[in-house]
Amino acid sequence: MKIETLFRHCREAFRSLTRNTWMTFAAVSAVGVTLLIFGFFLVFAFNISFMASELDKQVNVRAFLQPNVTSDDIDQVIGQLKKDPAVKSVKFQSKEDGLRQMKKQWGDDDRILKGLERGNPLPDTLVIKAKNPQKTKQLADSMDQYSQIADKDYGEGVTNNILDLSAWIRDAVFVFGLGLAILAAFLISNTIKLTIFARRREIEVMRLVGASNWFIRWPFFIEGSIIGILGAIVPMTVTLVSYNAVIGILDANGGQGIFKLLPMWPLSLYVAGMTTILGIMIGVWGSMISVRRFLRV
Amino acid sequence: MIEMHDVYKVYGNGVKALNGVNVKIDQSEFVYVVGPSGAGKSTFIKLMYRQEKPTHGVILINGVNIKRVRDWKIPYLRRNIGVVFQDYKLLPNMTAYENVAFAMEAVETPRRKIRRRVQEILELVGLYDRMNALPSQLSGGEQQRVSIARAMVNNPSFLIADEPTGNLDPENSWDIMYLLEEINTRGTTVVMATHNKEIVNTMRKRVIAVEQGVIVRDEQQGEYGYED
Ligand SMILES: Nc1ncnc2c1ncn2[C@@H]1O[C@H](COP(=O)(O)OP(=O)(O)OP(=O)(O)O)[C@@H](O)[C@H]1O
Ligand SMILES: [Mg+2]
């Protein structure tokens, strides 16, 4: 297509959009609501999978050593574990280390901890990371073969639960969002239908003088896409601004704890890109419905 | 050249508009199509610019079987055929100039070529001075001349007109006829359906008479032959 023709199509599209202001407004709003939900969901989904992977990384097997092990015993177990292909890393944590960590979590002046300092009941511990976080359970079970290890523990199911929940929410949002997208496309197709109706004489003349089918159709697709893009602007802004605010609040309250959120960049780029693309898709879809039904050659 | 071989047209409601038409119209001919109301004249015309498809038979435009032409190629076929109607079909919110330019824009002519060509064709139809008038500001005859300018602006080989003088008084009708004759002498084939007895009998051309979907008469320098 020539650039001159493209300009002409865009001009026509804008002219139609401003002619049916109310229909345009309704269609843009419908796209906006759809994309707002989509945008929030997108932010949510990205963060959930980020969080899950972060948690996966934190899932360790904690192997508690027998109370009477010697340092030779400890070196031997560590050596054997390091040879295990399922193991990524092994870290030794003495009972003193364990106590210090507990203090850090619970606060220094806790009386219980004060008491513990005299007779530290914590075992020496090996902190073991699996190569594949999903195989953590198998790795934990394999600890039974070492006589030096008294017991073991691992963060069972935390990640799985999060992933299950997010999958469930994703399905719900998908169904709801699809319904809204259909509604938005329907409203767009109605706007386009009005345009086609308003232009029927022009279209008739174009046919008569031999305008190609695509020349006749293009302005309607552009009109639909513009509605989609306009509909994407508000939800995109709202999503990103409120996300930025949430991050700000969490940061102000001293770190994000285990709920580590993705930083604005590059998340904002994904959200902006995907929201706009979806907006255009809904717009083109809506135009297609009307062009097919009312612009038969 | 336009050829029809054994062409039938049956409309969706079962009306048999054409019943075996055979005709050949050479380049640069001027042809009147006459006949009583409902005889099939408009149908005959519509088949030529592929507004309707024949139910049976073959139509060749410059040797191309238009039944075989793919739908998406039809527009390109139409660029070689100018069409004019009784009711002009001008766009009411565009000036005379814009109405004619619209036909060139629609076939993606570069802008710099449009201006000169539109002015040239408006000059030919004698409306150069009125090019900025809206259709509502023009007389019927002037409006028809704009529509002829629009049909001719892309230099088609054929000009097809369905009762172009049907809404005009005799004086304006004659202006239109002189214009069509001028266009014809420049090499464009003109086919025109008409009920105008005076014109057909005065400006003598080939006459094809259609009755009940059949060609009953085809004469060079023919007469109108009906009393209506
Ligand atoms: N689109 C259509 N659908 C169904 N029947 C049609 C259609 N167009 C025309 N007809 C019928 O076909 C027959 C021929 O019509 P056509 O318009 O070709 O006649 P005509 O010779 O142009 O008549 P007139 O001189 O009144 O314009 C008529 O009986 C008409 O009712
Ligand atoms: Mg007719």
Structure, described:
The complex is a heterodimer of chains A (297) and B (228). By secondary structure, chain A is of the alpha+beta class. Chain A has two domains: 187 residues, no CATH class; 94 residues, Alpha-Beta Plaits (2-Layer Sandwich). In chain A, 73% of the residues lie in helices and 8% in strands. Chain A contains ten helices and four strands, in the order ααβαβααβαβαααα. Chain A has a four-stranded antiparallel β-sheet. Chain B has one domain: P-loop containing nucleotide triphosphate hydrolases (Rossmann fold), CATH 3.40.50.300. Helices cover 32% and strands 26% of the residues of chain B. In chain B, the strands form two sheets. In chain B, strands 6-7-8-3-9-10 form a six-stranded mixed β-sheet, with helices on both faces. In chain B, a hairpin with a 5-residue loop joins β1 and β2. In chain B, α5 runs parallel beside α6. The longest helix of chain B has 16 residues. The mean pLDDT of chain B is 96. Bound molecules: adenosine-5'-triphosphate and magnesium ion (MG). Adenosine-5'-triphosphate binds next to α1 of chain B.
H/E series of chain B: EEEHEEHEHHHEHEHEE
What oligomeric state do these chains adopt?
Answer: heterodimer
Strand content of chain B: 25-35%
Bound molecules: adenosine-5'-triphosphate, magnesium ion
Tell me the strand order in the biggest sheet of chain A. 2-3-1-4
- Helical segment tally of chain B? 7
Query: What is the strand arrangement across the widest sheet of chain B?
Result: 6-7-8-3-9-10
Chains forming the largest contact: A-B, 18 and 25 residues
Low-confidence stretches of chain B: none
Number of self-contained structural domains of chain B: 1
Distance between the termini of chain B: 31 Å
Largest sheet composition of chain B: 6 strands, mixed
Give the overall silhouette of chain B: globular
User: In CATH terms, what is the architecture of chain B?
Assistant: 3-Layer(aba) Sandwich
| Mean of pLDDT of chain B | 96
CATH class identity of chain B: Alpha Beta
Rg value of chain B: 17 Å
Order of helices and strands of chain A: HHEHEHHEHEHHHH
